[in-house]
Design brief:
The complex is a heterodimer of chains A (about 240) and B (about 120). Chain A contains five helices and seven strands; from the N terminus they run αααββββαβββα. Chain A has about 240 residues and is an alpha+beta fold. In chain A, helix 3 packs antiparallel against helix 5. Chain B has about 120 residues and is of the alpha/beta class. Helix content of chain B is about 40%, strand content about 20%. Classes of the chains: A alpha+beta (about 240), B alpha/beta (about 120).
């Protein structure tokens, strides 16, 4: 005769069976997992390490790129700020020269402006011209003959060398309200700066857009201020 | 050592403005030639870095370094040269004169920040 077990005990046995089954299942799972130090674990760790290293390299590259962009923006901001920071024409010219030297790395350059008769360009500012052997920049005027400079002065388009028939590194038009009033010509870079870089183009564009207008505004202010002072002196003289 | 007061000795106003934008957390003292730079360096004993140009009127950067490094008190202040002079001979001259780093223009803020960061970690 089969012995009948009380219902509570049956339930407890069922639970015990279920627990044992679960334990057996877990044991199988653990058995099937690679043991520490096994080739599978090492490979997995190696793969994770490679992923982490790849992420690290990507982040480093992004950080370097970010720093580079910040540097570019800082240069542009400071150049713009400084160009418009004064109403003295001589100081604006000096700022253009400082941008050429300190931010673009130009060793030799000239700043040209069309004369009022518009047949010749005068040299408003220059650096390192004593070493220039082209003979195109003498007597305070640009004699013409450099293909890049002539083209830029004529059509107001920024050009970067090398270009046939030109020794210039870059010719940057100076425009005010759509009219080309002159050009900044970079003739030579410092020996430790091999060539203009892509980001230098931003600075050249900035000079093209801002330098002439800043200089024009400064000249207008200077002329107006001088006239005002003359008039004030006259008024004082008349009142006496 | 994180620099808190930096002396900028450079004849370019543009560069002074650049340092102002770049080193916003730092007190900057400005000199436009070596002579004025030396005077400021003597007056302010708490300057902990000098950013020095080489080609300047009145007194050049190398002359500035020669005087500063001959004075036991001033010699302690680290000097970073930032200049257009990029030849190997000039670099050697600058470092031998006592500069801790020699950077060439065109100005590169990232390079300068890296050099200053290396100063910060002893």
């Amino acid at each position: 005769m089969k012995e009948e077990l009380p219902p509570r005990l049956t339930t407890a046995l069922d639970e015990l069976r279920l627990t044992l089954d679960r334990a057996a299942e877990l044991a199988k799972q653990i058995e099937s997992q690679p043991k520490p130090g096994s080739p599978e674990t090492a490979a997995e760790l190696q793969s994770r390490l490679a992923d982490v290293e790849s992420d690290r390299l990507e982040l480093s590259a992004r950080l370097a790129d970010y720093e580079h962009q910040v540097g570019r923006l800082m240069n542009l901001y400071v150049a713009t700020y400084q160009l418009h920071a004064t109403l003295d024409p001589a100081e604006v010219q000096s700022t253009i020269a400082e941008i050429a030297i300190n931010l673009l790395g130009a060793e030799r350059f000239v700043l040209l402006f069309w004369k009022e008769n518009a047949t010749q360009c005068e040299i408003a500012l220059s650096q390192g011209l004593a070493q220039d052997t082209s003979g195109q920049y003498g007597g305070g005027v640009y004699a013409g003959g450099d293909a890049m400079v002539d083209a830029t002065l004529s059509d107001g388009v920024l050009r970067m060398g090398p270009l046939d028939g030109s020794d210039a590194v870059a010719a940057v038009p100076l425009t005010v309200q759509g009219t080309t009033v002159g050009a900044l010509v970079l003739l030579r870079l410092f020996p430790h700066k091999a060539a203009l870089k892509l980001e230098d183009r931003d600075l050249l564009d900035l000079i093209a857009a801002h330098a002439a207008s800043a200089l024009f505004a400064a000249r207008v202010y200077s002329t107006t201020d001088r006239k005002l002072k003359t008039l004030e002196s006259l008024v004082k003289l008349v009142r006496r | 050592m994180k620099p808190r007061k930096v002396l900028v000795v450079d004849d370019s106003k543009l560069l002074h403005r650049m340092y102002e934008v770049m080193l916003r957390q730092v007190v900057l003292l400005h000199a436009y030639d070596g002579q004025a730079g030396l005077e400021l360096l003597r007056k302010s004993s708490d300057i902990d870095l000098v950013l020095l140009d080489l080609n300047m009127p009145v007194m050049s950067g190398l002359e500035f370094l020669a005087v500063a490094k001959a004075d036991a008190q001033l010699a302690k202040v680290p000097v970073i040269i930032v200049t257009t002079e990029g030849s190997e001979a000039q670099t050697k001259r600058g470092l031998e004169a006592g500069a801790i780093a020699y950077l060439t223009k065109p100005f590169d803020g990232t390079r300068l920040a890296n050099v200053i960061a290396r100063l910060e970690t002893p």
